[in-house]
Fold this protein.
Amino acid sequence: MLLRRTLLALAAALTVTPSLAHAQTPNPRVIITTTEGAMTVELYPDKAPITVANFLKYVDRKLYDGATFYRASKPKGQVADDYGTIQGGLQNNPKKVLPPIAHESTLKTGLKHTDGTISMGRHAPGTAQADWFICIGDMPYLDADPKDPSNPGFAAFGRMVEGKPVAEAILGQPTDPNAGVGAMKGEMLVKPVKIISIRRAPPPDPAAAPAPAASAATPAAPTTPPAPKP
């Protein structure tokens, strides 16, 4: 009887442990190192699996090394560097781009283009490849419109969690009023900001996390995005 109870307890432990491990797996983070400084972005593979997997292919193959942030978009008349988008990537470099991916609408993922969101640049839905943009400020007009099927929005897939001053510094770089076409007209940087590398951030060390206080309760953008609206 004792042996039987021991085997049952072991089987129960083996059944529960993988699910607990999965539940505790943190979202992957990447560090974007540029000549202006570094930014850390958290990705959401549970919400936008296709887009995150595609982005990480470029990261793991080091294809973004030497790429640039080449576009800074602000609303007309905007002077401060606290609202707009910065766009980076490979600009259709045929030696580096991978095949296009399916569009993951914000209506499906539940993500929104809030401050710090990273999202894919594209032409028509299903054409996104290697270029992406980061929102500085909330930009709900980039979300898919549930009332207008002709507006599929852009595919958000993560959020910048560190380095906002670096993003603002890039947004504040001078642009060429004559460069670019369409929505990008006048938004191309005179001197693109070099992306030195994009690497996965080391996973957090559980041992380094501070222990909770004893009394504390457990807490229950290719066609690129249009210019930011004021």
